[in-house]
Amino acid sequence: MGSSYYQFCPVAKAMELLDERWTMLLVRELVVGSQRFNDLRRGLPRMSPTLLSRRLHQLVRAGIVQRRVEGNEVRYVLTRAGDELRPVVEALSVWGVRWIGELGDQDLDPSLLLWDMHRNVDRAVVPDGRTVVQFRFPDAPAGTRNWWLVISGDGVDVCDADPGFDVTVTITGALRSMVRIWNGDLAWSDALRGDVIEVLGPSALRRAVPRWFTLPAYAAVPRPGGQRSVPS
Amino acid sequence: MGSSYYQFCPVAKAMELLDERWTMLLVRELVVGSQRFNDLRRGLPRMSPTLLSRRLHQLVRAGIVQRRVEGNEVRYVLTRAGDELRPVVEALSVWGVRWIGELGDQDLDPSLLLWDMHRNVDRAVVPDGRTVVQFRFPDAPAGTRNWWLVISGDGVDVCDADPGFDVTVTITGALRSMVRIWNGDLAWSDALRGDVIEVLGPSALRRAVPRWFTLPAYAAVPRPGGQRSVPS
DNA sequence: CGGTATCCCCGTCGATACTG
DNA sequence: CAGTATCGACGGGGATACCG
């Protein structure tokens, strides 16, 4: 566990638990709903499994997470105390989206983008049956330029290799632009009008694509300059 | 600066700046109003001056703090971005006050208690002229059992040695009890009725003492069990 | 799938002393 | 008052390999 600050202040006591590297990001993953070890890993790809394991146990000891064994499956579930960290995560994301400047190229990880988008597919507005969305990021590092989202009644899968199904629509554009859309710094409509992002496919579907994905809540936070706010 | 998480998520970008040891506590100090190096030190007594200096410079580089030189005085002032960290600090304190269990003896630092109380004296309701409040914590470590708060038109001073003035009222009790009052876990009225805390002095003043101090905002946060909430 | 074991390095932090 | 300088240790965390 993080060592003590020797202060009775609740901020200090809270940060003793939360200020170690990765801990807050792990809490974020739990807050947005991941519960399985390997799902958590997909949201934290740079974190070693050893460290993820250690952090999870720390959170269990701290009463923030409950480790649930169900048959041969393990789930990590937020306790009441853990769930109440949601406002902290939200406050951090609001601050971040307002005050973090331009992202570095290193921050634009397409696997994280697709993993996050896959969690936020609004299946109710996606056509029935199997829908395959291909993403193409021509500027991304080799090997990370093509992604597929396979949406079906079974759920949503992320693929970094061609799953072999017919592609319903193809979305092409700079990775940075797609991230800007996702973070709420660029509106779908502006991106499409300005040809920053190109969507290929049957025209009825092409128009509908933006509504297939629910942007994260922080995307709607007004920006300091009063520049850009994404219209819903 | 903290090393990167290589994620575009605003929580990750925020935590790159904020998750290093002491950083959030330093922000807390700035949020509650300390601006001078040595005032900051008093709120962070276990932090080495080297590290405090480094953290301040990091916050300046991050655009969270502005270093203002005025004559031969230096002030560290929150920028707009820094001030907007207030909700983060508040969310953390709300969480902490609800979910941190019993404090360790090591967390009960009387210097921090007095330093925090001195910032929250409501001068409007303290008698005019010089008022001296002596605190006695018989159970505290030797050398930290006696404290004086000197309240006058000039401001409020904390003394760990007898300033020599006549004492107006004396507050005696366990350090832990005083901290519990301060954090909102114990009401003044209950403490006085139960003789957990004893106030000595002219009876008119004795009754007024609790109102001389404004409890921190988080003290009023309802507790999970629905146990104790401090009546205003 | 859900983790452990190990190993080593580097950076952080703490302590102490000192300066304009 | 407002910091720097220096130094050493320790342990956090990254990488990799491996197990039930």
Task: Describe this entry's structure for a reader.
2 copies of one chain form a homodimer. Chain A has helices at 10-18, 23-31, 37-43, 49-61, 80-83, 86-99, 110-119, 175-183, 188-193, 203-212; strands at 65-70, 73-78, 131-136, 146-152, 155-159, 169-173, 197-200. Chain A has 2 domains: 10-99, Arc Repressor Mutant, subunit A (Orthogonal Bundle); 105-220, Nonspecific Lipid-transfer Protein, Chain A. Chain A is α+β, with helices and mostly antiparallel strands. The first copy, chain A, is built from 10 helices and 7 strands. The interface between A and B is large, with 56 and 56 residues. The structure holds a DNA duplex (20 and 20 nucleotides).
Topology:
The structure is a homodimer of 232-residue chains.
Chain A: H1 10-18, H2 23-31, H3 37-43, H4 49-61, E1 65-70, E2 73-78, H5 80-83, H6 86-99, H7 110-119, E3 131-136, E4 146-152, E5 155-159, E6 169-173, H8 175-183, H9 188-193, E7 197-200, H10 203-212
The structure holds a DNA duplex (20 and 20 nucleotides).
